[in-house]
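Intended use. Records like the one below are meant for learning the mapping from a protein sequence to its folded structure. Do not use them to infer anything beyond what is encoded.
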Amino acid sequence: MHDAGRPPSGGCSRRKPPATDGTSASSTGTNPTSQVCSTCGVLDGPKPLNVRTWTCGACGTRHDRDLNAARNTLAAGRTSKMQRDAAQP
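Structure written out for the chain above:
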């Protein structure tokens, strides 16, 4: 008898993401996105988690920690996609 509450072996983890070309991007956790200035690219170094805003020592841009990390993550994703697109025949 089949258990209706349990997905078949493999489940959702082997399905393509909806509305995409089947590729996905992931962060390895090694890119310090909240420590790099999204304006000039300088690595400003680690900060305690309670520091929510910081000013880049190189260019003087004031950053919200989460927004800066999001900008850096988006830029990395766009770069990765451009590299994949350029590598395809």
